[in-house]
Input
Amino acid sequence: MQKKLHIKKGDTVVVNTGNDKGTKGRVLEVFTKSSRAIVEGVNMMKKHTKPNAETPQGGIIEKEAPVHISNLMLVDPKSGEPTRIGRRLDDNGKLVRFSKKSGEEIK
Output
């Protein structure tokens, strides 16, 4: 069974703690089992690679490492500020996420 997380792929988030505190980025991938997410431009690491089909040159590549979900906060679509997330039923009886700050529904 998968966990219900407050963050989904494609969301814009802000980092709460760590070296990248205050950085905004788009979520590229979410790992539900480990409660981690990869955010664009956040938690960059250097990876040493041998030459292969993808990287014929090889060398040192910088890429994003996963960040724990608890260190991320969704950005309110209306105000552009970090906000907490709630869930409620919409008119069709479907569970949707909404911003606690503005009450705006999050797609």
